[in-house]
DNA sequence: CTAATATGAATGAATG
DNA sequence: CATTCATTCATATTAG
């Protein structure tokens, strides 16, 4: 990997900028935007999901269905970190500051309902003065605000009817079995050890194509 | 793009430094050292190898058995969950499996916009091998996929002009937990050591190309 | 610490 | 297509 020795470089590829520069002691660093990192993350998650599913499939086919509930299709259960006993990779989420919240609530109360895209931009840039925020954050906030006030209204209406009211919040998302990740990982691992590494590499491209792993 | 007024944060984790720069419009960049990039590469390599082998197994075994899930009226009994004896869930809405998603993405990437009705039939029937799905699901998926990809433009390239950005599309500021890189970097090491490095790098190159990780 | 809740975000489906 | 709604998921926060 050669990245030149300039303090900073621009790499234009597919319309994206990649920056590279010296960090500290001559260590060369590459800069990825959050979106790029996120894309990468998704890609890796896709791999892990596939590995997960197939490993499970393998196990069930091998008639060793011991243990644990499985959670399929959960793209956010990352066996990578769990396989070494670490926590599941987390994503960070925006948290409105008090001021931002205040402003948002004000705007919301003014009734105008769904802000247009244009309005969202305005709001976002105003709120940006009080902390980091994006238009998407604003958009989501209004979506959620509307949806939840509506739901609240409905559930209170329901409770007036006083029937089989298990309302408000009936079902709690069942927590993922802590051992799930570990088991999955072990499944992958054991299978992996079983597999002959040398076989079938040539078919990789076909496989990758089939699953769209290479984009 | 310039780096003049960057905010810098250090995240100390397991002795590694991750730098996060606030570029200009609140766009954040993550800095990875060559070493870290190398680590990432290794893990991707590992996953690609695992996925390949598992998928092969899946294919060969699928030739003999149908393990792709059972429709029970409105209920969908996940084959793997079923194998462990619980969790028959009622799904109010279709949820693509990881495999289905990958296939869909793959088709989507091949461009050609809205698939014809005929095409949708084909896609649906192919995806049906991996789980319950209807043509409507496929149709909706493409609709949504298109619509939402539009919202994801802009972002990382130009961050200088912020004033009258009526033209700019929404951008997600989805900061990624700095732990992400760390966790990824440490996770699959055990797998990696089993993987075939020489072959894996090829797949890495393919995978990483779209992220511009390589020079 | 564990459990419950609040809420930001993702996404299938519906509507115009 | 463009928007919007409804539901679900995951995380941050707080209560016990």
Features:
215 residues, 9% strand, 7 helices, Arc Repressor Mutant, subunit A, disordered C terminus, 3-stranded antiparallel β-sheet, 3 strands, homodimer, mainly alpha, DNA-binding, disordered N terminus
Explain this structure.
The structure is a homodimer of 215-residue chains. The first copy, chain A, is flat, with a radius of gyration of 24 Å. In chain A, helix 4 crosses helix 5 (135-161). The two termini of chain A are 23 Å apart. In chain A, strand 2 and strand 3 (28-33) form a beta hairpin. Helix content of chain A is 50%, strand content 9%. The first copy, chain A, contains 7 helices and 3 strands, in the order βββααααααα. Chain A has a 3-stranded antiparallel sheet. Chain A has 2 domains: 8-90 and 178-211, no CATH class; 98-159, Arc Repressor Mutant, subunit A. Chain A is mainly α and 215 residues long. Mean pLDDT of chain A is 57; it is low at 1-17, 63-90 and 162-215. At the A-B interface, strand 1, strand 2, strand 3, helix 1 and helix 4 of A face strand 2, strand 3, helix 1, helix 2 and helix 3 of B. Strand 3 of chain A pairs antiparallel with strand 3 of chain B. The structure holds a DNA duplex (16 and 16 nucleotides). Chains A, B: InterPro entries: HD, Homeodomain-like_sf, WOX13-like. Chains A, B: Residues 89-153 bind DNA. Chains A, B: Keywords: DNA-binding, Homeobox, Nucleus.
**What about the largest sheet of chain A?**
3 strands, antiparallel
Shape of chain A: flat
What's the number of structural domains of chain A?
Answer: 2
Major interchain interface with per-chain residue totals: A-B, 102 and 96 residues
Oligomer: homodimer
Distance between the termini of chain A: 23 Å
User: Could you give the count of β-strands of chain A?
Assistant: 3
Global mean pLDDT of chain A: 57
The helix/strand order of chain A is EEEHHHHHHH
Rg for CA atoms of chain A: 24 Å
Backbone structural class of chain A = mainly alpha
Helical percentage of chain A: 40-55%
Number of helices of chain A: 7
Strand order of the largest sheet of chain A: 1-2-3
